Amino acid sequence: MKLFRKLLIILLIIILIISCFLFLIGYSYYSKALKEKPLISRVEEITNKEHYIPFDQLSENYLNAVVAVEDHRYYDHGPIDFIAIARAMYTNIRDNEFDEGGSTITQQVAKNVVFNQDKSIVRKLGELFAAYDLEKNYSKNEILALYVNSSYFGDGYYGIYDASMGYYKKEPKDLNLDEASMLAGVPNAPSVYAPTVNPELAKKRQKHVLNKMVEYGYISEEDANIIK
User: 70, 136, 173, 215: which sits with the fewest CB atoms below 10 Å from its CB?
Assistant: First the structure.
């Protein structure tokens, strides 16, 4: 029993040391990014763009579709969703794949606004600090607007305005459920799900978005089936 306790204490100390080490790496990486350009300046670069679309000018169908497919607990958790992370880890281990990420919308904004798109562990650690900073300084609605205005939608379209005008020749506020559910699924993998790249895969992704909207109570099964 004493040996077991000693081993447990040693294990806890090792975990603590590793956690502190990772904390310092992530914080250092984020601090370096802020020295190059402060967070507020990075955000203003997006919000000051000619075709930036604020939250209240976005289609309700589109906003609901984004939250349903990307982060359905978005308004209920903080910068990090530990439940989603645990679920992603379980799914990845169960399926022997690593497709689930567990990132919140805020974390994705941190990636889009503060960092680049590389998938290094260092960037992921820095992303956590950026996510906390974002939610400290901006509302959930503002962050959601930043997400859709900074995402890539394939075919050279950056931001929801360009995507909406490019694919459907209409402003984001006028997107119907069919169009909104299609665009909500694209940023997950623009090179695959862009409607002009692979219509069949884009439609398959759209069905997934619609299923999520039904699951979380945004639309009825009947509404989803009409589009499917």
Answer: 136
